[in-house]
Amino acid sequence: MKKMFLGSVVIIALVLAGGYYFYVSTSKVGDTLINEAKIVNSNPQNATYLVENEPFVLVNGLAEKDISFESETKNKLSIIGEPAYGDIDGDGDEDAVLVLINEPGGSGTFYYAAIAVNDEGKYKGTDTVLLGDRIVPGELSIADGKAIVNYIDHSSDEIFVTPPSVEKSLILQADVESLRLILIANDFEGEADENVMTLDMKPWNWQKTTYNNDTELVPNKPEDFRVTFNDDGTFSAQTDCNSLGGSYEVQDNKISFGNIAATMMFCEGSKEQEFSAMLGEVQSYLFTSKGELVLELKMDSGSSVFR
C-alpha cells in the first residue's frame, strides 16, 4: 500500500513539474523573444508564431485563445493552404514560408506571412508581417535564401465585400537567432532594404518612364507590363499586347538588354513599342527604399520605374 501511495506521489510530482516547465516556456514568449519558447516540432504546423507581438502555439495548424471569461468566442490563428519549402538560412535543410489567418472575433479576417526555420529537424516559427484584411493568398516560394509571398489585395476604392483585384508581392528573409522577419521588398510604400534587393527576386511591373524633357510615359495598366529576370542571363516580359524575351548583361550597376524578340500580334492603343524601345536604351539600374527598381536610360535621358 505504501509503495502504491509513493508511486502516485511521484507521478503527480512529475506531471506538475512538466506543467510548470511548459508554463514558464510559453510565458517567456510574450515577455521576451519568440525563441525562448522552443516547441519540439518536425513540421511548421506545430510551432509558435508571433502575431502583433502575441505568441500563438499552433497544434496541427491551429491555435485558439479565449477573448474573455464571459465570451465563448475564440481568437483563432490557423495556417491557410500549404507552406512552401526551401533553404532560407543557407544551412542546406528545408525551411518553410506560410500564410496564417487570424480571426480575432470581430468582423475582420487578417492574413499574415511567416517563416518556419528548420533547426536540425525542429521547426521554429518567426514573428509575422500583416498582408491585409480579407485578401486572397497566392503562390509561395523560396529561392536564393528569400521567401516570396504573392497575394491579391483590395485597392483603396474597393469595398471588402467585393473580390480583391490588386496583385502584390512580399519578399522576406529571417534572422535565425532572434526569429524575426526581415522585410526586403514590399508593395506597400516605403518599406524595403535596397541593399539586399536583386533583379531576379520577383517579377517587376512597369510604373512609368520619365524623360528629361519633362514628358512622361505611363502604362494604362501597370500589371500588364511585367519584366522577369532569370539567373541564367535571360529575361522575359509581358506587355499589354505581346510577350517579349531576350538576354541581359550586368556589371556592377550597369545593365544592357540584347536579342530582344517579341510575338507579332497587333493591338490598337498598345504601348508595347515604346516599352520595348525603352528597354533597348537602358544603361544602368538601382533600387530604392520604396521597393522600386529604377532603370536609367542612356545619355541621362530619363529613367523607368518598376515595382
Structure commentary:
This protein is mainly beta and 307 residues long. Helix content is 13%, strand content 46%. It has two helices and 21 strands. The chain has helices at residues 2-31, 272-280; strands at residues 48-51, 54-57, 62-66, 74-86, 95-103, 110-119, 122-125, 129-133, 136-143, 146-153, 166-175, 180-186, 204-211, 216-217, 226-229, 234-238, 243-251, 254-262, 282-287, 293-297, 302-306. The strands form four sheets. Strands 13, 14, 15, 16, 17, 18, 19, 20 and 21 form a nine-stranded antiparallel β-sheet that branches. Strands 3, 4, 5, 6, 7 and 8 form a six-stranded antiparallel β-sheet that branches. The model is unreliable at 1-39 (pLDDT under 50).
